Each structure stands twice: as C-alpha cells, then as structure tokens.
C-alpha cells in the first residue's frame, strides 16, 4: 500500500476535492435558492464554507503534487486524509447544526485529528521541499 502513496495520489485527491466542491456548490444552490430550506434545518453557510474549503484544499494538494520529489508516503497519507476530512466537518455541521463542538465531543475529537493530520502532512511536505 505504501507504494501507492505517491505524489500522483495527492494529485488525484486534489481532483476528487474539486469534484466535491462542485457537488456542494450545487447542493448549496438547491437548498438555498430552489428548495429554500429553513436555515434551522440545514445551515447553508456551512455548505458554503465546505465548498470553499474543498477548493482551497484541492489547490493546495495540486500545487504540492506538482513540486516533484518523493515525500514520505506517511506524510502524503496524512495530507490526503486531513484535506478530505477538514472540509467534510463543515458539511456535517450543515446537516447536523446541533452537534456538540466541544473538544471532548466525538465531533471535536475528529476535527482535532483531521487538523493534526493536515498540519503534519502539509507541514512535513513543506519541510521536505525546503
């Protein structure tokens, strides 16, 4: 499995995140403007934040994937997992706004882990390229 984790997997994850961003832009349009769903049921602000975050993470991954070199596969794994999980937290909040967001809640722990994965992965790859 480690052989599979290369810069091409970061590039592929970047393309997947762009597709997710496009998907949630349409979800946002449908919920906000076509169905006009009550904001207490679906928080479209979080859908918008997720949409933008998927795009930002996608471009980050694409840039890192085109730098070349062979960063540690664990760093690539952490980067891919974190950049997918971070925006997904916004989407979860959009459909379940009543979730407890404290650090001791399941949501808080998953969020923290995803932030750590993103930081270690992206930071490690940046250090690798220095």
Short description:
With 130 residues, the chain is an all-alpha fold.
Task: Provide keyphrases for this structure.
about 130 residues, about 0% strand, mainly alpha, Four Helix Bundle (Hemerythrin (Met), subunit A)
Explain this structure to me?
This protein is mostly helical and 130 residues long. It has a single domain, classed as Four Helix Bundle (Hemerythrin (Met), subunit A) (Up-down Bundle), CATH 1.20.120. It contains 4 helices and no strands. Helix 1 packs parallel to helix 3. The protein is flat and about 50 Å long. The model has no long low-confidence stretch (mean pLDDT 91).
Reported by name, the CATH topology is Four Helix Bundle (Hemerythrin (Met), subunit A)
CATH superfamily: Membrane associated eicosanoid/glutathione metabolism-like domain
The radius of gyration over CA amounts to: 16 Å
Give the tally of structural domains.
Answer: 1
Largest sheet: none
| Total helical segments | 4
Low-confidence stretches: none
Do you know the CATH architecture?
Up-down Bundle
């Amino acid at each position: 499995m480690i052989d599979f984790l290369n810069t091409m997997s970061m590039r592929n994850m970047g393309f997947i995140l762009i597709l997710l961003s496009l998907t949630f832009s349409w979800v946002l349009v449908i919920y906000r403007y076509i169905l006009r769903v009550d904001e207490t049921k679906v928080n479209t602000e979080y859908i918008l934040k997720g949409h933008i975050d998927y795009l930002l993470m996608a471009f980050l991954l694409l840039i890192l994937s085109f730098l070349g070199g062979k960063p540690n596969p664990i760093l690539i794994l952490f980067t891919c997992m974190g950049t997918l999980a971070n925006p997904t937290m916004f989407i979860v909040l959009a459909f379940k706004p009543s979730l407890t967001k404290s650090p001791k809640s399941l949501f808080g722990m998953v969020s923290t882990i995803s932030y750590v994965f993103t930081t270690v992965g992206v930071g490690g790859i940046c250090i690798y390229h220095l």
